Amino acid sequence: MTKIDRQALVRRHTVEIAQADPAAALTVGNGDFAYTADITGMQTFPAYHDQATAFPEGRLAVNTATMSTWGWHAMPNPDNFVLADAMTTYDSPRGPVAYPDKFDMNSMMGGEIPEEFRAGAWLHANPHRLDLGRIGLMLRPEAGGAPEEDPGALKEPHQLLDLWTGTITSVFTYAGHQVRVTTVADPRRARVAFRIESDLLATGQAAVAVRFPYASDGFFATSDWTAPDRHTTVLRPLGERACRFDRTLDDTTYVVRLDWSEGEIATAAEPHTFELKTSGTALELVATFAPEDAGALGRGEFLTIEGAANAWWREFWTTGAAIDLTGSTDPRAAELERRVILSQYLNAVNCSGSTPPQETGLTTNSWYGKFHLEMHWWHAAQLAPWGRPDLLERSLNWYLTILDVAQETARRQHYAGARWPKHVASDGRESPSHIGALLVWQQPHPLYLLELLHRGRTEPQRERLVTRFAELVEETALFMASFVEERDGTYHLPAPVMPAQEFYDARATEDPTFELAYWWWGLEIAQRWRERSGLRRREDWQHIQDNLARPHQRDGVYTAIATEPYLRRDDHPSLLCALGVVPENPLIDPAIMEATLLDVLADWQWDTAWGWDFPTMAMTATRLGRPDLAVDALLMETGKNTFLPTGQVPQFGSLLPIYLSANGGVLAAVSLMAAGWDGSDTDCPGFPKDGSWVVRHEGFTPWP
């Protein structure tokens, strides 16, 4: 079969924007750093994209922020709150156990926090991810005039995101003159580069504005522009064409270096604002961000960074896997291909860094900028089947840095091993929550992700992985083995436990269907890693695997949990993950799971579902031999499965205007639908064989 023309495949999905739109923000980055631009290719109109303003008005907007995996801030903690201040004691078979569950989202969002939740509120919101600064154009209708604040004043805007090279090109007319901006990000450093071309630079009607905000501890806010006295910015010249900004926000410090081709920078009238002017008609500018202790920051040149970015993206698209749906007669094929291409770009920019990503990546904040480890699978699992194991391994190394924290959590709860948290910043300290403290489906994730990584590597690399992660695998499984409760020879997942469908009473919930199957699979992976290390399978783990409780059934279908109310028909239909996300296992009967899938499809409140639920159903349908249902589920027409022209998938308006778990989920589902799994006996098992789908694919690693 002829190889796929990858450049043609990628470039037919170039993102094109022809008018200002507060929801149409484009991002360049490298997984550890990202810069999000408006219609000008810079951050010229931050108020226009402000989510805090748009949300109460019912409008969709995406902040234009600059963020990283290392940039964090914590508000002062005069009460010296610690995790123990947010604990509640639960009865358990191991005796009284304290969980950090004293947190109330509604009171925190409303601003009136009862005394008992004050500690939990501070610990939940701190640390939060930091907006490192905004770099935009300062446009004026005439020299010396007031800066333009209305993007509607731009005429004939035309913006392209060339996915093949990772380049944003923005062209528009202002005050009768054309402006052209080229924007790229360094593929390896926290650095963004611009080339600005316009006569307006020479007339004094265009300049570059560099603005620094204070941090915000709001749910989705990235910045606070109303507190100039709470932070400092010190400008330090570095010769004629460079400067350094030293930033201090409470205990957080970082630096920004600016390099430019010609011109002068000066402090502007507004606090923490600086203006770079030039007398020429072209300006090249590079901004480098780093923690204060990062050492000397060398000069950045636009052409060097542009070349590095172009080369990195060409390598990204020409290695790994690809899928081409050209020739398909199903009218949905072009849209699915678009979603696949844009999701790969967004995932690489936002989710392929040295820590697990937050659900909105490095584009904007959600849940205070922290990441949810139960979502790590949805962001990262697809990287190995898509032939990009290097990008997956980046974030798996982070688990090693917090292994001692996870071990202490398990010890405090009278378990063996390491218990992984749900809602965390890079330090690994869990955030108080009545859901997160009791959630368990994130526990097998590192095992599954490592197994996928192992499959994506060749032998010498596999040996290195087994050695490097041996302790992590063992400690993760030890917790899982000690978490179960044996009754009359059967092992249960006991209360208190919160399933992935997060609306059950944890104190009364037992044996969630998905988690039971995932427990078996996680222990099985740990057993395989022991064998790879030259050790014997553990008999006590095997005994648990062989005697795990079978998932509860009612009327010929599985229920979500084994206790009342058994099944709610809203939120995540996560019980389907038990065969789909999880491969075939002895706890799940495929015939019963097919009946369960049909039951869910026939009766569910889809307006309450989330973006990764549709890939979940597609993966289940694929493993059950129902490709017709796989495509229909993956492309279901419903609000939270809508992909914007930018590839983003909004969930709750400006509260959650992007949701990268949905993008990663599409990639996971499509890789399974195309490449299948060990033992699948047909190519493209997730696509109908009625002639309506022509699927060419290459480079995939099959799933387990």
What does this protein look like?
The chain is of the alpha+beta class. The protein folds into two domains: 6-71 and 128-309, putative glycoside hydrolase family protein from bacillus halodurans (Beta-galactosidase, Chain A, domain 5, Distorted Sandwich); 334-698, Glycosyltransferase (Alpha/alpha barrel). It contains 19 helices and 28 strands. The strands form nine sheets. It has a nine-stranded antiparallel sheet with strand order 1-10-11-12-13-20-17-16-15. It has a four-stranded antiparallel sheet with strand order 9-14-19-18. The chain has a three-stranded antiparallel sheet with strand order 2-3-4, covered by helices on one side. α9 (389-401) runs antiparallel to α11 (445-455) and α17 (613-623) packs antiparallel against α18 (627-634). The two termini are 25 Å apart. The mean pLDDT is 97. One of its GO terms (biological process) is carbohydrate metabolic process. InterPro entries: 6-hairpin_glycosidase_sf, 6hp_glycosidase-like_sf. This is Glycosyl hydrolase family 65, N-terminal domain.
List keywords for this structure.
9-stranded antiparallel beta sheet, 29% helix, alpha+beta, 28 strands, 4-stranded antiparallel beta sheet, 704 residues, Beta-galactosidase, Chain A, domain 5, 19 helices, Glycosyltransferase, 2 domains, globular
Describe the secondary-structure layout.
Blueprint: H1 6-11, E1 15-17, E2 26-29, E3 33-37, H2 51-54, E4 66-68, E5 72-73, E6 88-90, E7 97-99, H3 105-110, H4 118-125, E8 128-129, E9 134-139, E10 155-162, E11 167-174, E12 177-185, E13 191-197, H5 199-203, E14 206-211, E15 232-237, E16 242-249, E17 252-260, E18 264-267, E19 273-277, E20 282-291, H6 302-318, E21 322-324, H7 333-351, E22 371-372, H8 376-380, H9 389-401, H10 403-412, E23 423-424, H11 445-455, H12 459-468, H13 470-483, E24 485-487, E25 490-492, H14 513-532, H15 539-546, E26 553-554, E27 557-558, H16 590-602, H17 613-623, H18 627-634, H19 660-675, E28 696-698
Antiparallel strand pairs: 1-10, 2-3, 3-4, 5-8, 6-7, 9-14, 10-11, 11-12, 12-13, 13-20, 14-19, 15-16, 16-17, 17-20, 18-19, 21-28, 22-23, 24-25, 26-27
Helix pairs in contact: 7-19, 9-11, 11-14, 13-14, 14-15, 17-18, 17-19
